[in-house]
Amino acid sequence: MAVALGLSASPVSAARPASDDIAAYLDRALEGTGVPGLAAVVTYQDEIVHASGHGVDADGQAITEHTPMRVASLSKSFTAAAVLTLVDDGRIALDTPVVEYLPEFRMADDRARRITVRQVLNQTSGLSDTGVDVVAAERATSLADYVAALHDGSLASDPGTRWEYCNANYEVAARLVEVVGGQPFGDYLREHVFTPLGMSRSTVNADEVKPGHNSLFGLWLARPELDRNRYGGGAGGVVTTAHDLGRWLIAQNGLGPAVVTPESLAVMHRPVGEAEYGMGWGLQRIGDRDLLVHSGNLFTYTAVQAVDPASGWGFAVLLNSAGLHDDAYDVLVGLVELSGGRTPEIPGGGRQGAELALGLLAFAATGLGVLGVMRSRRWARRRAGTAWWRTLPRWAALGVPIVLLVAYPELASVLMNGRTVTWAQVTYFALPLTVTLAAAALAATATVVARVIAVRSVESTR
Fold first, then answer.
1. What is the mean pLDDT of residues 377-397?
2. Which helix (H) or strand (E) holds 420?
3. Would the pLDDT of 7 be above 60?
4. Could you report how far apart the first and last alpha carbons of the chain are, in Å?
5. How does pLDDT run across 65-91, given as a tens digit for each residue?
6. Pairwise pLDDT comparison (14 vs 317), residue with the higher score
7. Radius of gyration (C-alpha) of the chain in whole angstroms
């Protein structure tokens, strides 16, 4: 029986799409997006309507519905479920401060002692990437080390007053599961979440996962993940398959085997505040339907899941690639349309268009750089004897791409609401943008150097 969540009623198609129709759509989606491989699952009520894989992995092997894939932040919903099993057992109370169960959770900010378990799961704890040393925390090799790395941090707001997405919340939650549950987080997930649901190929051990991919102007490069979850963390460490996710989606619709009580499932799904975020799920409108959705983005893998408890539909899409455009979400939108009896548009073009534009800019910048070097002596002769301040605007214009490249990680951090961005990270899914900025900066630098040499040469001959 589906749990009533107070979401608006969602239409259920009179004629459920056939598995072959879904497979045909996914084949076209693979071609349209140009991604190396994808896996997807669609569920309805207590059935897996369709689960399949398309394309290939990094070794050229066919992707199937049983291919293990990293699902990034979809992990948060599993972590929330693990915490709620302990709530159902009476071993955790949601409105009790975390520190009462996890004495090792200490921060320089005394307000952290007031953070409750509920606030961690709802992302209203006050934890923020701007207040903790994310780089140091992500060097951790265990959840205990991660929590210890937060000790110098501060909160961005009083607990319970503002929503802000921060992975640290779910690493703290995973450590809470370890301490209260009395076993490693991965073992607890396997015993209390994966196994009861029949998710036999799910784990937090990424050792068996093939490298994912990044695109460089349409050329897919197989690359090992820039792994920030060496210990299989609660914010993004889950590895699963499309078929296993089907079991999970059915359970999230309140059907089939259950790992939490209906009351806890309702709490997990209930949107909080303006962000409309529950516990590992956010309320989002797709087409004419209000769905519970969560996306996941690593540096070489992308995923998204959605459930509609009002009708019993569930959807998940997993890609073994990451790029400047979220193709996984576009594919999922098409699956939602299919479930409503509509013919979806074939996704694709977003990433290709962005990369084409960037490629043209990189080519143009390189060409201008070559011309700038070749014409530097002519430029110097024309401006011989001109006051330096008259040529300043031209020098300043050349400095723009150089400054943009130097400040690139910091600018990216601002665009990502203060989340820490490193040089290593911008060489992954943002690779086309990084190469374009580097080409423009190199062209500008070469032109500046050539002009300085030319000016000195002209002046010495006068």
1. 79
2. none
3. no
4. 91
5. 999 999 999 999 999 999 999 999 999
6. 317
7. 25
Cβ proximity of 171 and 146 under 8 Å: yes
Nearest to 5 by CA among 298, 278, 189: 278
| pLDDT at site 139 | 85
For the chain, the residue count is 462
The encoded tokens of residue 392 equal 């300043």
Domain with CATH 3.40.710.10 in the chain: 19-339
**What's the number of CA atoms in the CB half-sphere (13 Å) around residue 319?**
33
Q: Residue 189: helix, strand or coil by DSSP? A: helix
Q: Do the Cβ atoms of 313 and 11 come closer than 8 Å?
A: no
Q: What is the C-alpha separation between 287 and 313, in angstroms, rounded?
A: 14
Q: Which pLDDT value is given to residue 178? A: 98
CATH superfamily of 19-339: DD-peptidase/beta-lactamase superfamily (3.40.710.10)
Q: Phi first, then psi: give them for residue 20, nearest 5 degrees.
A: -65, -35
Is the confidence at residue 47, as pLDDT, over 50?
A: yes
Of 219, 159, 164, nearest in space to 359 by CA:
219
What tokens appear for 144 in the block?
């205990």
Please state the separation of Cα 277 from the chain's center in Å.
16
pLDDT (mean) for 209-235: 89
Give the angle subtended at the CA of 245 by the CAs of 244 and 247, to the nearest 5°.
Answer: 70
User: Which secondary structure element, helix H or strand E, spans residue 391, and what is its range?
Assistant: helix 388-406
Cα separation of 351 and 159, whole Å? Answer: 38
Q: Is 38 helix (H, G, I), strand (E, B) or coil?
A: strand
Nearest Cα to Cα of residue 156 among 181, 133, 194, 125: 125
Q: Tell how many helices (H) and how many strands (E) occur in the chain.
A: 16, 10
The values of phi and psi at residue 53, to 5°, are -120, 155
Q: Is the pLDDT of residue 316 over 70?
A: yes
pLDDT band at 228 (very low <50, low <70, confident <90, very high): low
Calculate the CA 246 to chain-centre distance.
20
pLDDT at site 8: 38
Residue in this structure with the two tokens 């899409």, named with its chain if needed: 317
DSSP annotation of 199 reads -
Bridging pattern class, strands 282-286 and 239-240: unpaired
The pLDDT score that the predictor gives to residue 232 is: 82
Q: Which two tokens stand for residue 127?
A: 């934890």
Instruction: Evaluate the CA torsion angle 140, 141, 143, 145 in order and state its sign.
Output: negative
